[in-house]
Amino acid sequence: MENRMTVRFAALGVNESFARSVAAAFAAHLDPTLEELTEIKTGVSEAVSNSIIHGYREDPEGIVEMECKVSEKRYITLIIRDWGAGIEDVEKAREPMFTTGKPEERSGMGFTVMESFMDRVEVVSEAGEGTTVTMTKRLDACGK
């Protein structure tokens, strides 16, 4: 059986921690390790902050949607979606150090961080239409 939930929130920086907490709480019944929980929260943080900063350019009128799914096989899937600016060249955006923000303020490592903590990261985007980031992680089989 698959369990799922969806939450939508304003594209405000303060909601990044909210999204992290919601994802962690949703995954808690799988009894993840502290490291796995940190990795889930970090991946969510990066994807949500990308939506807020780059997708909506910090326009609080934007909406970010987060869908979380867990399966019996201990996979968690996190889908972060926005309807903002979109990404013209996804492959370029996934390169380490690439940023559309001010270089002195942004490291350009968001997708690299997501990829280092998740088993799979898929990015679908269209300029002017928005971006969907889907991250999947298999939790340690030593749990429940």
Protein architecture, described:
The chain is about 35% helix and about 30% strand. With about 140 residues, the chain is an alpha+beta fold. It has a single domain (about 5-140), classed as Histidine kinase-like ATPase, C-terminal domain (Heat Shock Protein 90), CATH 3.30.565.10. The protein has a five-stranded antiparallel beta sheet, with helices on one face.
The gist of it:
Strand 2 and strand 3 form a beta hairpin. It contains 4 helices and 5 strands, in the order βααββααββ.
Keywords:
5-stranded antiparallel sheet; 5 strands; 4 helices; Heat Shock Protein 90; 144 residues; 33% helix; alpha+beta
The total of beta strands comes to 5
Tally of DSSP helical segments:
4
CATH topology: Heat Shock Protein 90
Q: Give the CATH architecture.
A: 2-Layer Sandwich
The succession of helices and strands, N to C, reads EHHEEHHEE
Tell me about the largest β-sheet: 5 strands, antiparallel
Question: What is the percent of helical residues?
Answer: 25-40%
The CATH homologous superfamily is termed Histidine kinase-like ATPase, C-terminal domain
Mean pLDDT: 86
